[in-house]
Design a protein that fits this description.
Elements: E1 7-12, H1 25-37, E2 40-45, E3 48-50, H2 58-75, E4 80-83, E5 86-88, H3 95-103, E6 115-119, H4 126-138, E7 142-145, H5 158-167, E8 170-174, H6 176-179, H7 187-195, E9 201-203, H8 217-223, H9 229-244
Helix pairs in contact: 1-2
Residues 11, 13, 86, 146, 205 line the site of fe (ii) ion.
């Protein structure tokens, strides 16, 4: 019998019609039902924010999040929808522009905390990722590196990941990357990263209700027999609470 809990999903593209995630409120509602079935009761909506691109104004995101919150409450009165961004740092050239966007409130931290969900190009060099990460930390933010399994220049080199963690960066991995599926060849290595304590959070990074779906309980149930229980509890429950409460992980 696997443990069950009310999970928070800190990485999702559930706001309708705003990025490459949900395309309509109808799809969003279907995703909310799926999330609810996965025991997810808090979702941080993290639409893409691309430095140097024409991004949707925050007011629009807030309005959409409120509309999604209303739909979520119909499914479960305790369902919470919070807001953030997944910030794409396409180049070290933009590293200070990212900070300006955060400080001016154009780009959002996770649920108003000091935590910032950041992503890079799949082919980004370790040096460029490290430079941007250190810049966030220098300015008082705590970067969470989204889907560590995607960056080909650091993913297979544990010492690189370790270096980022020692600097104060948090590491996020997608749920579907540990359970197999299309990531099945990488899944054993991904679970090893978790057992080595190099992953702070797993999250769904859901984009739709067909392929990139909301998932959490399935990942937890799958990992229970394969990962250290305390670590698993940390990366699925305790650390998400700390983010939302703006406490240090
Ligand atoms: Fe994402």
């Amino acid at each position: 019998m696997s443990w069950q809990y009310n999970y928070a999903d800190i990485h999702s593209h559930i706001l309708p019609g705003i990025d490459d995630g949900s395309r309509s409120m109808e799809q969003t509602v279907r995703m909310l039902h799926m999330a609810s079935a996965e025991n997810i009761t808090t979702i941080i909506a993290t639409p893409h924010y691309i430095i140097g691109a024409d991004n949707p104004p925050v007011e629009k995101l807030v309005k959409l999040a409120e509309q999604v919150q209303q739909e979520a409450a119909k499914i479960n009165k305790d369902f919470k929808i919070l807001l953030g961004n997944e910030i794409y740092c396409r180049d070290t050239f933009f590293k200070d522009a990212v900070i300006d966007a955060l400080k001016s409130g154009k780009a959002l931290t996770l649920a108003g905390s000091r935590y910032v969900l950041v992503e890079f190009a799949y082919s980004a060099s370790f040096k460029s990722i490290r430079l941007c990460i250190s810049n966030f930390i220098y300015h008082g933010y705590i970067p969470i590196l989204a889907h560590i399994e995607r960056y080909r220049n650091i993913y297979r080199n544990m010492s690189n990941i370790e270096e980022l963690v020692k600097m104060g960066c948090c590491i996020q991995m997608n749920c579907r990357s540990v359970t197999g599926g299309y990531m099945r060849l990488k899944a054993p290595y991904n679970r090893k990263l978790i057992n080595y304590g190099l992953v702070h959070l797993i999250a769904s990074d859901c984009h739709d209700d067909v392929k990139r779906i909301p998932i959490m309980q399935k990942a937890v149930s799958y990992l229970e027999s394969k990962c250290d229980k305390e670590l698993l509890q940390e990366i699925t429950i305790e650390n998400t609470i700390k983010i939302i409460e703006n406490k240090y992980i």
